[in-house]
Amino acid sequence: MCEPLAHGDDVPAHAHDFGQLRYAASGALVTTTRAGTWVAPANRITWVPPFHVHSSRAHGATVVRLLGVPAAESGRLPSVPSVFVASPLLREAYLATATEPDGSPRARLLLEVVLSELARAPREPLRLPEPGDARLKAVTDLLHADPACPATLARLGRRTGTSERTLSRLFGRELSMSFPQWRTLLRVQRALLELGDGTSVTDTATRLGWANPASFIDAFTALVGQTPGRYRATG
């Protein structure tokens, strides 16, 4: 377990020679790697494989429980960072590891339960790819700071000094999606945090720039696989 994090606290980029599982017992954790950004609100566990450089940001007052996975066992989990849905058994076994001495027979048994449950746990599909090109990053940084921003790509290009045509090409080449698709995915990721905080579906839609709740519900359901109302209730 790391020290409690206040809302907005950052953990600088670093890496380990072992795998790491990360669970926010309270609050939510946003993890960023070169491959993209993952959001893990309530009942989600983030997996970071060995040697993957990652940074973090807390959403709300966040208490993170960390669980190291030896490199020899890491091959049982995906080779890329991932977020899993935590069943009650997975969550309780995971939290119980914090009370056991490292390497003890019970700790090894609990780790085996955790890895076995993760092998069958659903994975969240919501990876938000992040750009390497500085011109594109200038645009995505603006949207990260204000996901509700209604600006067109042309207007964002004028603000950052790059043409709409160039930016459109970069979105397709670097991120394999269009500008509207990327912004929608960003907004849905942020919606997971808002709904996890108990914000209503209507207020979440308004805060994140949707024209109306119905369009938000359609976009959220298409990406998450359930309505925002159901997600909020089960979260």
Give a verbal description of the structure.
This protein has 235 residues and is of the alpha+beta class. It has 2 domains: 10-120, Sandwich (Jelly Rolls); 134-234, Arc Repressor Mutant, subunit A, CATH 1.10.10. 45% of the residues lie in helices and 21% in strands. It is built from 10 helices and 6 strands. It has helices at 71-74, 88-96, 105-120, 134-145, 153-160, 164-175, 179-196, 201-207, 213-224, 228-234; strands at 10-14, 19-33, 36-40, 44-48, 54-69, 82-85. Strands 1, 2, 3, 4, 5 and 6 form a 6-stranded antiparallel sheet that branches. Helix 7 packs across helix 9 (213-224) and helix 8 (201-207) crosses helix 9. The chain is globular. The model has no long low-confidence stretch (mean pLDDT 90). Keywords: DNA-binding, Transcription, Transcription regulation. Residues 137-234 form the HTH araC/xylS-type domain. This is Helix-turn-helix transcriptional regulator. InterPro entries: AraC-bd (IPR003313), Homeodomain-like_sf (IPR009057), HTH_AraC (IPR018060), RmlC-like_jellyroll (IPR014710), RmlC_Cupin_sf (IPR011051). Pfam families: AraC_binding, HTH_18.
Spell out the key features of this protein.
45% helix, 2 domains, globular, Jelly Rolls, Arc Repressor Mutant, subunit A
The whole-angstrom Rg is: 19 Å
What fold name goes in the CATH topology slot of the largest domain? Jelly Rolls
CATH superfamily of the largest domain: Regulatory protein AraC
- State the helicity in percent bands: 40-55%
Task: Calculate the mean pLDDT score and round it.
Answer: 90
Percent of residues in β-strands: 15-25%
Give the termini distance in whole angstroms.
22 Å
What is the CATH class designation of the largest domain?
Mainly Beta
How many beta-strand elements?
6
Mind telling me which CATH architecture of the largest domain this is? Sandwich
Order of helices and strands: EEEEEHEHHHHHHHHH
Biggest β-sheet, characterized?
6 strands, antiparallel
Low-confidence stretches: none
Overall geometry comes to globular
Number of domains: 2
Number of helical runs?
Answer: 10
Query: From the helix content, strand content and strand pairing, which structural class follows?
Result: alpha+beta
